[in-house]
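A.,

Following up on our hallway conversation. Structure tokens first:
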């Protein structure tokens, strides 16, 4: 496994920021929601551990750009979160380079759509491993030191599908419901320890992956991209708008701030009213 160390290029003396000196690990953060969260935390002074797959050159450019723009240390681990041993190695690397994890954001996830009787067992196992079990492994590893220090923030990126179900997404819905259950359990166990644990439940968020899905579905169904958006993707969202990665990043940053100290065990919908119906 290739691990890239911190880049201190561009760091300089500047006014204190809310998360200065904190170390934040964000899984699945080389693009999309995870990258938006990483940028939001870096902008507030947190040193960042990026994780995920992607073209090495592109990932390195992202890492360097974030470090320079926000004047923080940024590292990268390509750990495969379906492998508990790789998760352990990623956390050991984080400790060696940046110290203990103060902020953990579990964002990594995959999806597969099929009727349950046709759902491949291998896909079920992979989705549960990455979308749910990886959060258990990361929380289990970082929590003792958070409790010992008396401060920690855990944010699990769940989904509107952690609150409601949709057909043909059995593994994803099961995993995201499990993430919310895990979130609430950790919150109760750490309620007096200075550690908070919350879940964010987005509906559809505008990301490069969603943009690609729109084009693919338009070709597959022979309909204009606008009809894919209105009749398929945003059919269940009353506001008929995508959330932005900046919205998810901003909410995560709030939960990680001192203003979020009394929020724990929450499952916060960012879904344009989807789950209010």
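Then the amino acids I'd put at each of the 277 positions:
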């Amino acid at each position: 496994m290739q691990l890239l160390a911190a880049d201190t290029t561009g760091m300089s003396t500047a006014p204190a920021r809310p998360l200065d000196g904190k170390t934040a690990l964000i899984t699945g953060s080389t693009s999309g929601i995870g990258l938006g969260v990483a940028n939001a935390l870096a902008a507030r002074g947190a040193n960042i551990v990026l994780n995920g797959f992607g073209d090495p050159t592109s990932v390195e450019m992202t890492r360097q750009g974030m470090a320079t723009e926000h004047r923080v240390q940024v590292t990268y681990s390509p750990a495969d979160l379906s492998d508990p041993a790789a998760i352990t190695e990623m956390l050991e690397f984080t400790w060696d380079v940046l110290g203990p994890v103060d902020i953990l954001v579990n964002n990594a996830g995959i999806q597969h759509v099929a009727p349950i009787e046709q759902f491949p067992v291998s896909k079920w196992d992979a989705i549960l491993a990455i979308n749910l079990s990886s959060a258990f492994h990361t929380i289990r590893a970082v929590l003792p030191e958070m409790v010992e220090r008396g401060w920690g923030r855990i944010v699990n990126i769940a989904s509107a599908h952690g609150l409601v179900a949709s057909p043909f997404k059995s593994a994803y819905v099961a995993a995201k419901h499990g993430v919310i259950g895990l979130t609430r359990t950790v919150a109760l166990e750490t309620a007096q320890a200075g550690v908070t644990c919350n879940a964010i439940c987005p509906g559809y968020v505008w990301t490069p992956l969603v943009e690609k899905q729109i084009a693919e579905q338009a070709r597959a169904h022979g309909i204009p991209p606008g009809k894919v958006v209105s009749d398929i993707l945003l059919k269940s969202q009353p506001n008929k708008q995508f959330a932005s990665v900046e919205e998810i990043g901003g909410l995560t940053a709030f939960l990680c701030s001192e203003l979020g100290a009394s929020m724990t065990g929450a499952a916060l919908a960012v879904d344009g009213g989807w789950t209010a119906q």
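The longest strand covers residues 195-202. Curious whether your intuition agrees with the design.

B.
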